Structure formats: structure tokens, C-alpha cells
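In practice, a research group might receive sequence data for several interacting partners and want a quick structural hypothesis before committing to experiments. The following worked case mirrors that situation: the sequences arrive first, and a predicted assembly follows.
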Amino acid sequence: MEQKVLVAFFSRADENYNVGYIEKGNTHIVAEMIAEQTKGELFHIKTVTPYAKDYKSCIETAKKEKETNARPPIKGDIAVEDYDLIFIGYPNWWGDMPMAVYTFLEKHNWQGKTVIPFCTHEGSGLAGTEKKLGVACKGATLLKGIAIQGSIAQNSKDQASQSVVSWLKRLKLNH
Ligand SMILES: Cc1cc2nc3c(=O)[nH]c(=O)nc-3n(C[C@H](O)[C@H](O)[C@H](O)COP(=O)(O)O)c2cc1C
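A structural hypothesis for the assembly, expressed as C-alpha cells:
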């Protein structure tokens, strides 16, 4: 039977490190590549209160949220329980996932699911996030994730897409 695939991701447009003001977030771009390759459905994890458009204010807010282990409320939801394979995408924020990703993860039962992380970053890669994802998605099987430099996803889409395609091939997950 066909596996049902979900690509859930957090991503922020506006001003960011190394890319200036952007219309579509770096992780969003990678999420679309994965969805195309796997025939997956997209779900954009968004906070009820948007982050500041300027980079400096945003990193300050994100830092406070990480320090307080906050769970910012998110807009809407998706029935993760209806899917078999769930990609979870996020930017590396202060060496971690944005706290809103935890808000999303903690709303669901991950028992028996297959979870695959992907992140965009500007040097820190996945950092310790795979492990943290494993803890938050109790009962799920975690597959090897990928880290793509955000500015490459934004400005060198062919290069980013090649990395995504070969990673999915290694996992035997592309159509
Ligand atoms: C609040 C914040 C914190 C960040 N912290 C890190 C970090 O610790 N390490 C890193 O490599 N990049 C860091 N970055 C850069 C982002 O990971 C990178 O720009 C990413 O591609 C953004 O994805 P998005 O456009 O999907 O939101 C940070 C960016 C922001 C806005």
C-alpha cells in the first residue's frame, strides 16, 4: 500500500542572515522540493503571533523563547495520525528547533510513525536536533535527516535540489 506522506515545516520569510529580505523562507523552499519528490502534503507550522520582520528583533525573541523553553501557540493543525511518513522541517535557531516546532510535536501521538528531519542553517547544521526530535516524537522511528545551508536553498536551488534528491534516494523515499 502507498505510504501517506506529510511534510510539516516551520519557516520564516522576511529578513534573515546571509539572504536579506526574502519572500519565501529557506526551509519552505526545501519543504516544497521534498513534497514534490515524495508526493507529500505540505503543512506550514506558523505561530499565532508572527515574528518581527527584521532579523535582529527576531533573534532576540527566539533567544528568549529558547531560554524559557516556551511553547508559542500555533495557527491551525493537521492530523499527523493520518500519515505514515512525516518529514519535519525547521531552521536551526540557536542550535535548536524553533520552540513552535515543539508546540506542534507535543500536540500529537507519534507512536508507529516514521519521522524524518530536515533543517536549513548557516553553519550549525542539524546540531543536536535529531536527538531532540526523537525524544519529542516518542514511539516513532527516526530516519537520517539532512541539513542544507539556507542561503543555498534560497539562491542556488539546483544545488539544494540535487542534495535533496540524493538524500531521498539513499532513504529510498522518492517516487
Ligand atoms: C532566530 C534565528 C536564530 C538562528 N540561529 C542559528 C544558529 O544557531 N545556527 C545557524 O547555523 N543558523 C542560525 N540561524 C540562521 C537560520 O538557521 C537560517 O537562516 C535558516 O535557513 C532560516 O530558515 P527559514 O528561512 O526557513 O526560516 C538563525 C536564524 C534566526 C532567524
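Before designing any experiment, note the following. The longest helix spans residues 157-170. The chain has six helices and eight strands.
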